[in-house]
Amino acid sequence: MKKIFIFLTILFLFCQSKIETYAFNLVSNYSFENGKEFWATNYSGVLFDILEDEAVEGTRSAKITNNKTSSFGVEQIVLDISSTLTYKISGWIKLKEPYPEKAFLRIAWYKSFDASGSQFLTEDTPVATPSSSWQKVELIKNPPVGINSAKIRLLVVNGSAIFDNILVEEFIPPSLTPTPPPTETPVLNCVGQACLSPTNFPTQNSSQQTHLLQHLSLIKISIFLRFILIPKQVKMSGWRFIMTMILLLI
Ligand SMILES: [Ca+2]
């Protein structure tokens, strides 16, 4: 009986908990904590340094300097791209003075499976605004049909910028975002000759419902804690156990 009780309790807690989905980042060494590993410059004139004292995450970041008026920087191949999915490309940028003309992220889509051959299309995040603070840039995109790989590029035009926390991940819309209730067409409620206007209809008060659900959850938690804290010497009868589980599952 005790094992069944523990099993059902764990099952109950599992069912009551919110199942959260975490997107998987496809960028290796995304935070530069492993130095330059997996990253390479895409132009010989680019200076690529790892900073040890500035970071959004961890302790390291990448400083990229490009004195040309074209966009150059560093890049990394991203595999396992599917055109049926939506991706969020994001990263943190901190500009160095004098501020560069541009600093941003670019995703280049490839039809090949290893980002070889010609790029099919490139798409850019917004450029970082002139500021010496860390700022996040991001882009949410569906790859074109037939895309199987990509390159993520950290680019600078005529200056220096620091990059950290570079993510290319499947974009999953927040499933827990409450959606507004559908708009109902007002219908007059006529009883005999008297008709109630739509403003007299009882309306659902979502706030009150939310409070009621919270109270019910607190009651269930209280019952659960009460039986967890019962001394081992006190045995739970079969009927008491069944009633407890029924209360917990209501
Ligand atoms: Ca870092």
Outline the secondary-structure elements.
Elements lengths: L1 H15 L23 E2 L5 E5 L9 E6 L5 E7 L8 E9 L6 E9 L10 E4 L10 E7 L7 E9 L1 E12 L18 E3 L2 E3 L9 H23 L9 H12 L1
Bound molecules: calcium ion (CA).
The site of calcium ion has 9 residues, from loops.
Your description of this structure?
By secondary structure, the chain is α+β, with helices and mostly antiparallel strands. It has a domain at 40-170: Sandwich (Jelly Rolls), CATH 2.60.120.260. The chain has three helices and twelve strands; from the N terminus they run H-E-E-E-E-E-E-E-E-E-E-E-E-H-H. It has helices spanning 2-16, 206-228, 238-249; strands spanning 40-41, 47-51, 61-66, 72-78, 87-95, 102-110, 121-124, 135-141, 149-157, 159-170, 189-191, 194-196. The strands form three sheets. A five-stranded antiparallel β-sheet has the order 1-4-9-6-7, with no helix packed on it. A five-stranded antiparallel β-sheet has the order 2-3-10-5-8, with no helix packed on it. The protein has a two-stranded antiparallel ribbon with strand order 11-12. Helix 1 runs parallel beside helix 3 (238-249) and helix 2 (206-228) packs antiparallel against helix 3. It is globular. The two termini are 21 Å apart. Calcium ion binds at residues 31-33, 55, 57-58, 60-61, 164.
